[in-house]
Specification:
By secondary structure, the protein is of the alpha+beta class. The chain has one domain. The protein has three helices and six strands. It is globular, with a radius of gyration of 14 Å. The N terminus is likely disordered.
């Protein structure tokens, strides 16, 4: 079984280009959407995750806030947000 690594940008979000040259819009990632909308999130094989992802998750688990550098600072988790993780 292989660990599939997700990029940090896919979790938090990134700016993407539009059809208009030089124009960018914010595209929130799956973690940011789950945090703000109060969804449940399952992360498999968390022990295989790269440190950049773990470094984002630890403050979220400890304080309930997600740091979104370059786009709004910190986001507080919705009351119904839950995170579950498995390990190998």
């Amino acid at each position: 079984m292989l660990c599939v690594y997700m990029h940090l940008q896919a979790l938090i979000g990134t700016y993407r280009c539009t059809d208009i040259p030089g124009q960018f819009v914010w595209q929130p990632g799956s973690l940011l959407c789950a945090v703000t909308e109060g969804h449940w999130l399952l992360l498999e094989d968390l022990d295989c995750a790269p440190m950049d992802i773990v470094s984002v998750l630890v403050p979220l688990l400890e304080t309930g806030t997600l740091s979104v550098p370059g786009h709004g600072g910190e986001v507080h988790a919705a009351p119904s947000f839950r995170i579950f993780a498995t390990r190998r």
